[in-house]
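Q: what sequence does this backbone want?
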């Protein structure tokens, strides 16, 4: 998760993107009344459906198991003791009943009125759940905070965290409209409550045809595990940096020759104003332009002994976020055409670079975000498998790099399961704690130091190791190789904090045998190790900063790829293709 601005504006996940539907909200922000519900479909009957021919269908064609559903049509629905709160019957959208919730405008400040029901946890652990309902509203007041307002939500509690995935609903007055969200239920979930109503607003709202279905069952772990994890290269370690697609040959020379890096993560990234949704019809032309930049860079990467990760930072169907780039969100999981275009794009890339010795691997999608997985679309594990198989049909020996949803962070490895394929390396992005690594990027909060107390908790190397523990356990459990595609700390973190944070992280990566690319080299100056702690100073410093010296000390340990035979500083100049 990162942001950049300025003339080389590039990729970056941003916290604002995490306030959309189906996300985790900060602690203590709402609606925590709770209780228990009956399961509408018997587990045995549903399992029988999936044990037969249906299991051989593509995931987006398999029947979905109903977890809970109600239309509020029967009188007994309003006498059901499983609900907490007083149920008031309203008129439904099809002439039947609905649940009506009202908060008076005389309340000051506006209060909250929610109806809750506890759901059967065992029936959904590890599953992707799609929640849909029909909602209409009358004079719902403005919400004081983004997560307030009309609540169609699940409240999930685990030993590690509390989560509030919910539908993104408007305010004001509107006729019946579909509300929907998807969320993955953690395998260690303790309690789950369905929440319907109003929070910190006034007005009236109606709910009808509430339906929660299991859109994807937990994936089974592959049984054929190699004693030696697939790494895709013969070197002791890959150490390098993420770079802008506008990095020039001189920059590649400095990184590969002077500094000694042996890897770059090359972004295929589309820039756009926040909120913009580029049409699918223009995706091929944009991709061709992006690949031409890569074509021009590959001979220089070969000359300077740099393996390349091809990172699809902007897949089809995305929406631009606050980092001014088109992210892996929005329609990618709600539009079958976007998913089909993703597969065809990778087939094109695989054919173009088939057999290229310079390319270490293909990073299938940067920081995938399952904002909403629509019926008829694959979730990320299923889509990643389809993309991977399409690539392997063209270039069977190519290393494939996969990050888990959401956003590729360490916590997402808790329930992540390897793909049933060979030649796969798994990638994590590490920016925790975000309050430290991104300080001053979006806010003017007081500076924080590392090690130190951050968000009320002590952060040091032990805490970093604990944060990365799900990734380490995933590595050990499945005997796979880990690549840290991104990690960083903003350069103006006070009193040398950024260098100490980076030092502690890389020592962990090295101890665990992980390859890594620092974010970023000659991209936005905020992440640059060539710039100092003074955020006003936007020119590189001479002599080198302590962070640059630290990074180069690790690169000095690198081996060059076996195909790199050219002595440094000699040989013919590459030609543009």
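A:
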């Amino acid at each position: 998760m990162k942001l950049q601005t300025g003339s080389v504006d590039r990729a970056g996940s941003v916290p604002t993107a995490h306030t959309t539907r189906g996300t985790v909200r900060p602690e203590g922000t709402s609606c925590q009344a709770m209780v228990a519900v009956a399961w509408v479909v018997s587990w045995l009957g549903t399992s029988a459906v999936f044990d037969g021919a249906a299991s051989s269908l593509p995931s987006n064609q398999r029947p979905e198991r109903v977890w809970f559903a109600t239309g509020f049509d029967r009188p007994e629905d309003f006498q059901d003791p499983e609900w907490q709160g007083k149920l008031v019957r309203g008129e439904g959208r099809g002439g039947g009943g609905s649940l009506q919730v009202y908060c008076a405008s005389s309340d000051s400040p506006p209060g909250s009125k929610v109806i809750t029901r506890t759901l059967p946890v065992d029936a959904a652990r590890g599953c992707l759940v799609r929640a849909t309902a029909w909602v209409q509203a009358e004079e719902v007041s403005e919400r004081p905070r983004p997560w307030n307002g009309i609540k169609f939500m699940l409240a999930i509690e685990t030993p590690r965290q509390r989560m509030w995935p919910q539908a993104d609903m408007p305010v004001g007055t509107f006729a019946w409209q579909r509300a929907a969200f998807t969320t993955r239920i953690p395998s260690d979930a303790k309690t789950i409550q369905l929440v319907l109503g109003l929070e910190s607003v006034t007005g009236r709202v109606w709910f009808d045809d509430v339906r929660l279905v299991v859109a994807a069952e937990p994936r089974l772990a592959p049984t054929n595990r190699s004693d030696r994890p697939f790494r895709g290269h013969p070197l002791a370690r890959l150490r390098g940096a993420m770079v802008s697609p506008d990095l020039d040959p001189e920059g590649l020379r400095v990184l590969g020759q002077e500094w000694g890096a042996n890897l770059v993560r090359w972004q295929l990234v589309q820039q756009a104003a926040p909120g913009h949704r580029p049409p699918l019809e223009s995706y091929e032309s944009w991709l061709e332009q992006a690949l031409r930049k890569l074509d021009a860079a590959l001979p220089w990467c070969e000359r300077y002994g740099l393996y390349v990760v091809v990172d699809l930072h902007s897949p089809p169907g995305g929406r631009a976020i606050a980092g001014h780039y088109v992210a892996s969100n929005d329609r990618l999981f709600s539009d079958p055409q976007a998913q089909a275009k993703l597969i065809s794009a990778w087939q094109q890339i695989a054919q173009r670079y088939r057999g290229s010795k310079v390319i270490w691997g293909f990073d299938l999608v940067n920081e995938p975000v399952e904002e909403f997985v629509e019926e008829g679309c694959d979730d990320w594990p299923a889509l990643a498998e389809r993309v991977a198989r399409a690539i392997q049909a063209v270039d069977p020996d190519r290393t494939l790099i996969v990050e888990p949803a959401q956003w590729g962070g360490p916590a997402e490895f808790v329930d992540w399961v390897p793909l049933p394929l060979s030649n796969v390396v798994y990638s994590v992005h590490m920016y925790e704690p975000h309050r430290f690594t991104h300080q001053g990027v979006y806010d003017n909060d007081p500076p924080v130091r590392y090690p130190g107390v951050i968000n009320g908790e002590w952060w040091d190397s032990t805490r970093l190791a604990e944060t990365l523990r799900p990734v380490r356990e995933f590595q050990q459990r499945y005997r796979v190789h880990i690549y840290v595609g991104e990690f960083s700390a903003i350069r103006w973190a006070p009193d040398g904090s950024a260098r100490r944070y980076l030092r502690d992280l890389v020592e962990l990566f090295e101890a665990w045998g992980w390859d890594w690319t620092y974010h970023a080299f000659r991209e936005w100056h905020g992440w640059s190790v060539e710039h100092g702690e003074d955020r006003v100073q936007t020119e590189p410093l001479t002599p080198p900063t302590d962070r640059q010296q630290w990074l180069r000390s690790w690169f000095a340990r690198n081996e060059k790829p076996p195909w790199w035979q050219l002595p440094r500083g000699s040989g013919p100049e590459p030609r543009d293709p």
